[in-house]
Amino acid sequence: MFVSSEWLDCVSNSSEMEVLRGVEAVVSTQSTGREEKINNSLASSCSFISVQFHLSTQHPPTLSFTITPIVRSLFISFSFSLQAFAYKMTSGKEYEEKPVSVAVEPKEQPIVDPNRLSPTTRLLLCVAGIMGFFVVYGLLQERIMTTPYGVDAEGKDVYFRDSTFLVLSNRLFAAVFAVVMVLRRGESLKNVAPLYKYAGVSLSNFSATWCQYEALKYVNFPTQTLGKCGKMMPVMLVGTFISGKKYTIKDYVIAVLITAGCVIFMMFGDISSKANAGNTPYGLILMGMYMFFDGFTSTFQEKMFKGYTMSTYDQMIYVNGFSAILCVVVLVANQTLGSAISFAQTYPQLLVDSTLLSACATLGQMVIYYMIKEFGALAFSTAMVTRQVVSIILSCIIYLHPLSTAQWFGAILVFGTLYYKANEDRRKHSHGHGRH
C-alpha cells in the first residue's frame, strides 16, 4: 500500500496516546451494533500497533517497515466501518457480509476409464484393437505397393514405387503422435538413453520396414505374412550369437517346423506379386533381410535399453525421429524425394492411404504395449497369430490370391505350431506362478 510522506511525518510527530485518542474519536462517532464491534476490534488492533510504533520510533531505520502495516490496518478497518454505517442509515438494516462463492472447476474425467471395465472386456477390446488395426494395416500395405493408382499417357498402370517415402510417412506420424502424448501427460521430452543408442535401433528398424514394404513388389501378401512367422529361427540365431541366450531342444524343433511350413508354402504355389511377377527370388531375399533386421532390432533394443527406465513414448520419439531423418537422407541421396512428393500431389489417394497406414501402425503399437502390460506377452502372441491368419484369408479373398493345397498345408503347419508354442508358454507360465 502506498503511504504519503505527509502522513508519515504526522504520525511520527505524535505520541502513542495521541494516536490512541484519534482512534477512539473515530469509534465514538459511529453507532452501536455491528459497527461498534468492528470499531472495538479496530481500537484493539491499533492499540497493539501503536506499541509497535512507539518502539519503532526509538529505531528510525525500521520506521518505514512498521508504519506501513499500521496505515494499512487503520484504513481498511475505518473504510469498512463507514460502509456499514452508511448502509444502516440509508436502508435501516444491519450490514451483513455475503460469503464469496468460488467456482471450482470439475476435475476432467476420461470418457471411458479402462480400469472400470472387467478384465475379460479389456482383453476382448485389446484383441479387437489388434485385429482391427493390423488387419487394416496389412490390407493398406498391399493396396499401396501392389495396386495401380492410375494410368499414364500410354495407358499403362501407374504404381507407387518408393518404399522409403512410405517409411518416412510412417515414422513422422509415430514421432508426432508420441510428442503430443508426452506434452499432454506433462512428461519431459529429454532423451533418457544416449542418442547413439536410439540411432542404432532406428537404423535396423528402418532397414526391416523398408525390406518389408519393398518385398511386396515381388511377392504376394500371404507369402510376406507367413514369412514373418518364419523369423523365429533368425531371432534365435541372433540371440544366441549376440546376446548369448540359451534355447531348449523343443525351441529348435518348433523353429524348424515353422521354417518348414514356410518353405512348403513358398515352393508349392504361386507367391509372386501381381505388380512385378518376374523377380520373385529378389522378393524372397528381401524377406530374408527383413527377418534378419527385425530380429536384430528386437534383440538390439532389449540389449541397448537395458538399465534405462523410460516410457514407451520416449522410445517412439527418438527411434522414429532418427528413422525419419535417415529416410530424408536416403530420399535426397537417391534424388527421389521430389518425385515421391509429385506422385502424392498427382494421386492424392496415396496420402490418404499412407496416413491411414501410419495411424493403424501407431495405434496398433499402443494396443500392443497396453496388452503386454496388462495381460502379458503370451496373450499378445496368441492374438497376433490369429491376426496373421485372418490377414491371409482376407488378402486371398479381396486381392484374389489362389492358394494350392500344399500352401494351405504349409500355412496350417506354421500356425498350428505357433498356437502350440503359445499354449506351452502359457502352461509354463501358470506352473511357474503355482510354485511361488
Which terms would index this structure?
single chain; 436 residues; mainly alpha; 15 helices
Task: Explain what the structure shows.
The chain is globular and about 65 Å long. Mean pLDDT is 74; it is low at 1-80 and 97-111. Helix 5 (119-146) packs across helix 14 (349-398), helix 7 (195-215) runs antiparallel to helix 11 and helix 10 packs antiparallel against helix 15. By secondary structure, it is mainly α. The chain has 15 helices and 2 strands. The protein has a two-stranded antiparallel ribbon. Helices cover 74% and strands 1% of the residues. A hairpin with a 5-residue loop joins strand 1 and strand 2 (157-158).
Mean pLDDT over all positions = 74
Number of distinct helices: 15
Structural class: mainly alpha
Q: Gap between N and C termini, in Å?
A: 70 Å
Q: DSSP strand (E) fraction?
A: under 5%
Q: Give the proportion of residues in helices.
A: over 70%
Provide the spatial order of strands within the biggest beta sheet.
1-2
Shape: globular
* Major β-sheet profile: 2 strands, antiparallel
User: How many β-strand runs?
Assistant: 2
Architecture blueprint of SSEs:
Elements: H1 5-12, H2 16-28, H3 34-56, H4 63-91, H5 119-146, E1 150-151, E2 157-158, H6 163-185, H7 195-215, H8 221-229, H9 232-243, H10 249-267, H11 280-304, H12 312-333, H13 337-346, H14 349-398, H15 405-435
Antiparallel strand pairs: 1-2
